[in-house]
Amino acid sequence: MFLLAVLCVLYIWSPATLTGGLGSTPNTIPRKTVPIGSNGGRLFREEGIWNYTTMLLREDLNVLILGAREAIFALDLDDITVKKAMVKWAVTDTERKECSNKGKDATNDCKNYIRILHKRNNDTMYVCGTKAFIPTCDYMSFADGNLVLEGKQEDGKGKCPFDPSQRYTSEMVDGVLYSATSLNFRGSEPVMMRSSEESIRTEFSSTWLSEPNFIHMAHIREGESNPEGDDDKIYLFFSETAVEYDSYTKVDVSRVARVCKGDLGGLRTLQRKWTSFLKARLDCPVPNNNVPLLVQDVFHLCPGDSTTCMFYAVFTPQLDSSQYSAVCAYKIEDIKTVFSKGKFKTPVTVETSFVKWVMYSGDIPDPRPGACIDNHAKQMGFTKSLDLPDKTLQFVKEKPLMDQAVKASGEKPLLVKRGAAFTRIVVATAMALDGTSHQVMFIGTKSGSVLKAVNYDGEMVIIEEIQLFESSQPVKILRLSNTKLYVGSEVGVVQLSINECGQYHTCLDCVLARNPYCGWDLNADQCSTVNSTNTAGTVIQSLSDGDARGCQLRDNSKTVSMSFVHGNTVKLWCQPYSNLAEVQWQLNGKPIEASDTFQILSDSLMIFNSSADISGHYTCSSVERNYKTQHIAYDLKMWSASGTTALLHDVKGKENTLVAMVVVLSLILAMLVIWNVYRGHLPLPFCHRSEESQYVNQRPEQKRASLTVNSNTNNNHVNDQRFSSSREMDRLSTTVGSSGQISFKYIDDESEI
Ligand SMILES: *[C@@H]1O[C@H](CO)[C@@H](O)[C@H](O)[C@H]1NC(C)=O
Ligand SMILES: *[C@@H]1O[C@H](CO)[C@@H](O)[C@H](O)[C@H]1NC(C)=O
Ligand SMILES: *[C@@H]1O[C@H](CO)[C@@H](O)[C@H](O)[C@H]1NC(C)=O
Ligand SMILES: *[C@@H]1O[C@H](CO)[C@@H](O)[C@H](O)[C@H]1NC(C)=O
């Protein structure tokens, strides 16, 4: 019974699940899996408000403007739990009734979902909502700590979707809104448009847009000094029904399209329509996948001038049969080349009515169809799109699709991973210790987590997977500031630090993490955020090799003595700090092989049907990239009635006080249970397993505490100091009830996630 109590405690200690690498190919297992309770993030959500899926970073005002359902918030950028202001924007009863009369769901769809938030100038923002299927826009200011809607109620058709479940995208360029969404109630008239005085839009033609899903828009400046005298461009990423495949079933493809900022439409042909709308297929080749993957989100990064821009895109399969998601990157120069030099496709009718799109090999008019008004056009006497000849415009109108696809940089994905589908991506540039810069990808998933990944010369390293929401809550938006990541879902927003290094407690863990933000500081004996002022030599970082030879390896793992009862199952706990580490158990110096008696799990060793010959000295080590760490050792003895103190006698050193305390608590618990049973208060001795493990799930801080104790490493004094000095110990307090029963109780009330 006493042993039962000990096992109970051990059971509570073990983390609920370690789903990290399950189902992944070996190279795409996240090195660490951070559970929801220990992600260190700050959560914002407001009672009764949902759908936190629109964000605008205002670093100039130090606020995060957050659009939700019927409400807009201004949150402190440094700490989003600080709400600086809020404004409600609800639908009226009449609007709701009209909406439900048109057959829409009154409790869900007939609400005002904030969908567009842009900065217009220093003082005003532009905001649009679905407003019960009457998309409406307004101007908003944040001044003197208040968010104020001006109440202008502009028509939002073509800017904001009617239907809150539809994908859309928009961009504000010099105070003018570019948007891609549906223009009508039914959602059947897709457009990409510019809402200026003279608004310009796409043709209503399936040749231009065929049942599209709009994903992302990006304004890329060409710069005053570009040699061609070319105009700024707006790039549009979307997926749509393909015309280029011989297929009986409907196949979708990913596309990139672009228009020129200065486009004013044509004079007769393409009046008030884009004269520069060209589109091309976007390829993200995943081996053994015949049906193209579809783009889900795009992020662009321009480290220097516009020629250095890269578009990072996440893709998921369109058929559920394959569970691979991928990230592909595209160089802007490759996209430009396809549009400015590539061949066009043209429709031809084969047999009776079947239309097939093939490469066009006839003459191409001059100026080139779809080109912006550049030096060449100006030399020919065309100073604006209204001047362009009909021949050029007619060509664009009929053949906006390029023959060539845009190939991924390196002609292969940066990352392919099985498991939860990717939903969103942002990319940050991290400066490593040696001055090289690395692109760190933050990828949101359908199961509420964020992956942090870097590609080192073709080798993809997933540094960690951080669980932020329940697995049923997909990540719906990601935004990045210099040092923080903001992650939105239908149920809340989480803020994370992107360059946090405190989670790595040992030199080995810090260096093998290959996290470009972090290096092991030998002087401070801790994992620190690297910066350019770090003097070389005292900080160790090895990003492309994971070379940790500079670490001073110390073995100060501890030994725990344990007793068991003949015939019982014993669980010895050992949690390596990396999912990539291989666990090795030894008994009296000999490797333990899996057998009927021994089962080696990722976090423990199970010993079944224990008998005298399993007694001995057990050690648990892990090996990662050829570096071996001993985590813990156990001295296992068969239980003898006289040995109540045997459990304690071998516990060495100050750092083991916690283990000792838990053991003492268990002893007291066991004795109280015995006493209670003896007095007849309890019918049978039992382990409050369901209750306790449930509480572990609910209050993950305790799990973190347990992890700290158990994931013993070479350098565990860091852990233990942190543990004993932190509030975690206070939270886990023991109370003795009036009936003399002991229960663990959570005192701290802090509502984290
Ligand atoms: C808004 O959030 C609620 C709660 O999570 C969810 O059930 C609903 O589907 C969301 N609505 C939209 C349009 O995303
Ligand atoms: C907007 O604010 C920035 C700095 O906050 C300032 O430099 C700029 O002059 C302002 N622009 C206008 C038009 O007021
Ligand atoms: C750079 O790092 C060192 C130690 O890692 C720290 O003391 C210093 O304050 C940092 N400098 C900046 C500018 O962050
Ligand atoms: C347990 O071990 C004993 C001998 O030590 C053996 O007789 C018995 O069959 C074992 N039981 C199981 C379930 O393996």
UniProtKB/TrEMBL annotation:
Example GO biological process: ossification involved in bone maturation
UniProt KW Methyltransferase keyword: no
The family this protein is said to belong to: Belongs to the semaphorin family.
One Gene Ontology term of the molecular function aspect: semaphorin receptor binding
Signal peptide positions on this chain: 1-19
InterPro entries associated with the record: CD47_Vset, Ig-like_dom, Ig-like_dom_sf, Ig-like_fold, Plexin_repeat, PSI, Semap_dom, Semap_dom_sf
Pfam family for this entry, one: PSI
Cited SUPFAM superfamilies: Immunoglobulin, Plexin repeat, Sema domain
Assigned keywords, A-Z: Disulfide bond, Glycoprotein, Membrane, Signal, Transmembrane, Transmembrane helix
Residues in Ig-like domain copies: 567-620
Keyword presence, Nucleotidyltransferase: no
Biased composition (Low complexity): 708-718
Lineage: Eukaryota, Metazoa, Chordata, Craniata, Vertebrata
Region (Disordered): 708-730
Protein known as: Uncharacterized protein
Origin superkingdom: Eukaryota
Domain Sema, residue spans: 26-498
Subcellular localization(s) per the UniProt record: Membrane
SMART domains from the UniProt entry: PSI, Sema
Gene Ontology cellular component list: extracellular space; plasma membrane
